[in-house]
Design a protein that fits this description.
The complex is a heterodimer of chains A (about 350) and B (about 110). Chain A is an all-beta fold. Chain A has one domain: 7 Propeller (Methylamine Dehydrogenase, Chain H). Helices cover about 0% and strands about 40% of the residues of chain A. Chain A has a four-stranded antiparallel β-sheet, with no helix packed on it. In chain A, strands 4-5-6-7 form a four-stranded antiparallel β-sheet, with no helix packed on it. The radius of gyration of chain A is 19 Å and the shape is globular. Chain A starts with a strand and ends with a strand. Chain B is about 15% helix and about 20% strand. Chain B has a five-stranded mixed β-sheet, covered by helices on one side. In chain B, a hairpin with a 2-residue loop joins β3 and β4. The N terminus of chain B is likely disordered. The chains are: A mainly beta (about 350), B alpha+beta (about 110).
Chain lengths: ~350, ~110
């Protein structure tokens, strides 16, 4: 069961530790600097923190002593391009361990997928995706460039990668990144012109997760709804039972039960606040046929916390859940979301949560 | 060394230029390079001397000595980062600005963010 939680925020990284059922901030790092993402590598316990420095660009740091000290390592970067408008990495928006020793995958705002085989000593742009003719259809979704925010490495076949892009849909490779195709059939974009509504390469998937014990089960929170796939993303079905709204950013799936998933609904589009000023988590235990709205321990009046796409996390046992908001509130649940407790109430805006030590 | 007019006689205030009447002359003398104290929060960057014909060439030599610094000042395409500003002596400069021996280059952060 998780004993550590990393909260990446606009003003630093905060590492919480669990004592029994209680969570306390044990240490912090990079105070004052935006940390866009943090990841604990289950293979060797190394921690990674991605920084987005306002003046000095994107950086990547790693810790081998549970966050006590950090060292800067190589950051994904685009190779030199011709012309004046060559791309730059604007943010590390996804960071996942591969299966080989030292293997890492990084998704970026800027649209590049990067691969490291040496524990972030160096990175290579995945050319096959970058040069795919349909990539030119991608759009920035709330950012100035498209971004890869979700990377699922199939636990049963590490050559099988599934990505989600905002706005670019779901993409898959069966050969370790050598070739790619969009697989968004069934996902639609009601905000696009009618003739582009079903275009797989423009879909605004906000977050994509894969059930580790059943990799063919995928859940997606999309800009205009929740979608579910039971055939490894070859086809998608809209989940209309979600409540109190179908808009949101985060999604978590139970590590063993593919039909059990959580969402944090909000008022859609530009508004982006909790419905009726009440923070809630929506849980399904039956593959999306029905949802229960979990409220206990969460503020139910005049709460305007937005949970961003990486702000909902589940631990490796599926017992602990955490949500962190743009208002700096961090809540945890040790019973799959039935009851929540606030672990921190005055953090900077929370970008991403990640459990460690599952 | 022949005398140089200090700045572009056209009065360009957006970028420092050292332009002799008969065109730029590239002088590879030593230039003092200093960095904003805010960069020192992230990595060591003491003031140092470097040579080159332009601001970009001088910085490139600095980056040979301090490779990590490059990614803090330049983006993936070796452009000056959007929120980094370079002053050549007392004028804002771009990477192409010619430099002369005895000039000073200041790498600063733009005032932005919150």
């Amino acid at each position: 069961m998780a004993r550590r939680l990393m909260a990446a925020t606009r003003k630093g990284l905060f590492i919480l530790e669990r004592q029994g059922e209680s969570w306390q901030i044990a240490r912090s790092a990079f105070l004052g600097d935006p940390v866009s993402l943090a990841m604990s590598d289950p293979r060797d316990g190394r921690l990674y923190a991605a920084l987005k420095l306002g003046h000095f660009g994107v950086k990547l740091h790693t810790s081998e002593d549970e966050g006590a000290t950090w060292q800067e390592v190589a950051c994904p970067a685009f190779p030199p391009a011709e012309g004046e408008n060559g791309p730059s990495v604007l943010e590390i928006w996804a960071l996942e361990p591969g299966r080989q020793p030292g293997e890492l995958w990084a998704g970026t705002i800027g649209g590049g997928l990067f691969h490291s085989t040496d524990g972030a000593e160096s990175w290579q742009l995945v050319d096959a995706l970058w040069n795919h003719p349909l990539r030119s259809n991608w759009l920035g979704g709330g950012n100035e460039a498209p971004g890869i925010h979700s990377i699922c490495v199939d636990p049963e076949n590490p050559q099988h990668l599934t990505l989600a892009v905002s706005c670019g849909g779901v993409w898959q490779s069966q050969d370790g990144g050598a070739s790619w195709r969009p697989t968004s059939e069934g996902i639609y974009a009601e905000f696009m012109p009618p003739e582009r509504r079903d275009d797989p390469s423009i879909q605004d998937v906000h977050r994509l997760v894969q059930c580790p014990a059943r990799p063919s089960a995928l859940w997606a929170q999309h800009h205009n709804g929740v979608f579910h796939s039971t055939d490894a993303g070859e086809s998608w079905q809209e989940v209309t039972a979600i409540k109190p709204s179908k808009f949101g950013f985060g999604v978590a799936v139970h590590p063993e039960d593919p039909e059990r998933a959580w969402f944090v609904p909000a008022v859609k589009d530009e508004c982006r606040i909790p419905v009726d000023g009440a923070v809630v988590v929506a849980r399904t235990t039956n593959g999306g046929r029905s949802f229960e709205v979990q409220r206990e321990g969460l503020p139910q009046r005049h709460a305007y916390d937005l949970v961003l796409r990486h702000g909902l996390a589940i631990d490796g046992t599926g017992q602990w859940l955490a949500i962190g908001s743009t208002c700096g509130h961090l809540w945890l649940s040790g019973d799959q979301g039935s009851r929540w407790q606030m672990a921190a109430g005055h953090l900077p805006p929370i970008y991403a949560l990640s459990f460690a030590g599952a | 060394m022949r005398p140089w007019p200090r700045y572009d006689p056209t009065g360009d205030t957006t970028a420092a230029r050292i332009v002799p009447p008969d065109g730029p002359i590239y002088d590879r003398g030593m230039v003092r390079v200093s960095f904003t104290p805010n960069l020192r929060r992230h990595l060591p960057c003491p003031s140092l001397d470097a040579s080159g014909g332009t601001v970009g060439e001088v910085l490139a030599q600095v980056f040979v000595q301090q490779p990590r610094l490059k990614g803090y000042v330049l983006d993936d395409q070796a452009r000056l980062r959007r929120h980094v500003t370079v002053y050549l002596n007392s004028r804002k400069a771009d990477l192409a600005a010619p430099v002369a021996s005895g000039d000073e280059v200041y790498v600063m952060q733009a005032l932005s963010g919150g």
